[in-house]
Amino acid sequence: MEYRELGRTGEKISTIGMGTWRMGTHGSPAERASQLGVLKRGIELGINLIDTAEIYASGRSEEIVGEATEKIRDEVFLATKVAPGHLRYDDVIKACHGSLQRLRTSYIDLYQVHWPDLSVPIKETMAAMEKLVADGSVRYVGVSNFSVKETEEAKASLAKNEIVSNQVYYSLTHRDVEADVLPYCERENVTLIAYSPLDRGSIVNSIPRAILRKYGMAQAQVMLNWVTRHDKVVAIPKAASVVHLEENAASVSARFDQAEYTQISEA
């Protein structure tokens, strides 16, 4: 597994992480056991970044992540997110404590604002984030779905901490962030966490066959390799099965050359 620095923290996180949207929702004990198996297999393969949120499956996503990682807490890097409806100072504190309980841990490695809320001053939200860091409940502060301007406002609102990451929608077929968010992250040493890097399952079929054959990769693997071609980008695909998880983990086992990345982009 390939690892990259989170922001400028010195913390190493896996280039391919595990997203958990809708995880925790299951129709049978067997399906739940399968979800736990995916998480545990990912950790075995060296994936240490696990991303969740308090709103995923109404908190059940955090619960299953907590169950999977409780006995190996120091081996994983847990990232979760506070909901946009909980950005008032007291609400942030309360939401964090709820996530801590569901995750079965005393600290969150990366606590992110899930979406900006223009009705709540960002200074108020960031004051709560800094309180959580000071208390030891949170290690690092991040944002999600923030524009460059919003990220700058959040950054300016922090007195003692930095914005270390921005989690945004980024894939081979959804490249809006390349206009300004990605260049900003590279310039300011902020990690871009790409969610839906497989475009919610819309796997492209136009990737040059020569590249697929040369590297022995499936199209989804090429998509993950492509989206993480920048050093400041990590990706958090969700895997529905151990087989898919293993494919995701192997997607960065080799790197394409620049001409091949250009071919993929143009295709």
Major β-sheet profile: 8 strands, parallel
- Kindly estimate the percentage of residues that lie in beta strands according to DSSP: 15-25%
CATH topology: TIM Barrel
Strand order in the largest sheet = 3-4-5-6-7-8-9-10
Query: What is the string of helix and strand elements?
Result: EEEHEHEHEHEHEHEHHEHH
- What is the first-to-last residue Cα distance? 27 Å
CATH evolutionary superfamily: NADP-dependent oxidoreductase domain
Quickly give the structural class: alpha/beta
How is the quaternary structure best described?
single chain
Low-confidence stretches: none
Number of domains: 1
* Overall number of strands: 10
**Number of H- or I-type helical stretches:** 10
CATH class: Alpha Beta
What shape does the CA trace take?
globular
- CATH architecture designation: Alpha-Beta Barrel
How would you explain this protein's 3D organization?
The structure is a single chain. By secondary structure, this protein is an alpha/beta fold. It has a single domain, classed as NADP-dependent oxidoreductase domain (TIM Barrel), CATH 3.20.20. It contains ten helices and ten strands. The protein has an eight-stranded parallel beta sheet, with helices on one face. A two-stranded antiparallel sheet has the order 1-2. Helix 1 (29-44) links the parallel strand 3 (18-19) and strand 4 (49-51). The chain is globular and about 55 Å long. It starts with a strand and ends with a helix. The model has no long low-confidence stretch (mean pLDDT 95).
